[in-house]
């Protein structure tokens, strides 16, 4: 079915790219294309998926008609059938469905499904509340979630801290300290529609809000939480200059991350998260460069007096800078970026037992000691940069010697110091940029040698990067680390992050 859905979307894209029928109709065709992604996420049974294909085939047959009125009628019919399919799990009586749909279309007959669906859900939920509480003029935010739970379950979306923070933002105001704030029924329909449009509106919103919602529930909600009282500071330090789009992130500005989020910013939500991406509702909004930047690239969560990171990008990647004097262990599949210009992958690590034996003695006995160390060979390749598609090999074996070579340098070198892996200076690499080091327990580590432009260890493995799935949760600061300072890379931007020293935030 996945291939069939991809084919449907490709055919719809081809049709609206031809732009034969004007912008109003094109907008509705694009919206019908995006609904396919939404339906795929609903885990609909095969019978209904087959019905979906039939609905779209009828639409394709109408594209060749010369009568615009006939095409509009078929598009409207297709929208009604798709909406009914999407909302199957709500089990709405047919007479009510027709009534709500008519009301949702009342504003304009040229609306797309991206606009109709949030309106429909607003009318549906409002009707449930009014019928359940006929004499009530207001409802608390807490009670409100009782009435929308059924909607979110129907779309396989959890209601969590993130969902609640969005509802509070649009119904009561993000800065409202009252968790049980009340909403007047005669004035909240407009705010409710905005809330629903975030999760059920345009595909742009869908990819942002639903992705954050699901990642939060799957990974962040289950952290061993302690109520944090620490502020964090984040400072953009470099930007990617070749982006296509308007630059909104201000270099060297200090942004404060409060326990509930970025309190002083326009896009504040009191969920403790900081969102990075090109979606305008992100906390840090990157330029609108679709070829390189995702709607949401990274999630940062302020909890347990620490920051937890998830790389959820698909077009790029995120990494953490290795500070001078520090190291990080690596295994097969690890990725590392040097100077934001060269990306390397560890393809394979082989080990070979050393057969040396040594004679030893104590005051009573003589005995033989076997060397437990192992020789190791690393095969790695360049995925981005000057050496793209070139393979490399290093080995701890030293020719004509029993010794182990336990470090391998990267850089452009200086007069009497040649690196093991030469990389030209013009790439931004330092003369002695970083090293692979091998210890006595047969472990490999990546060290930075005080490079000018940094050595970054990626948050994703190659398998995660290639499969376009998000990373595991990464704890940014080490426990009991007095420095509490780090540099992260997101879409080739770098940010320095640190904790406020001797500073607490009054949670009340």
Describe this structure in words.
The chain contains eleven helices and 24 strands. The protein is of the alpha+beta class. The chain has a domain at 319-458. Residues 503-508 have low confidence and may be disordered.
Key structural traits:
508 residues; 32% helix; ten-stranded antiparallel sheet; alpha+beta; five-stranded mixed sheet; 11 helices; disordered C terminus
Briefly, what is this?
It comes from Stentor coeruleus. With 508 residues, this protein is of the alpha+beta class.
Form type: elongated
Radius of gyration: 28 Å
Largest sheet: number of strands, sense, barrel closure: 10 strands, antiparallel
- Widest sheet, order of strands: 4-3-24-23-9-21-11-12-15-16
Total beta strand runs:
24
List the topology elements.
Blueprint (H helix, E strand, L loop, with lengths): L1 H17 L4 H18 L5 H17 L5 H19 L7 H12 L7 H20 L5 E3 H14 L6 H11 L10 E3 L4 H12 L2 H18 L11 E7 L16 E3 L15 E5 L6 E2 L12 E6 L2 E6 L6 E4 L5 E3 L5 E4 L3 E12 L3 E5 L4 E5 L3 E11 L6 E5 L11 E5 L9 E2 L11 E5 L5 E5 L6 E4 L3 H6 L6 E2 L9 E6 L2 E7 L9
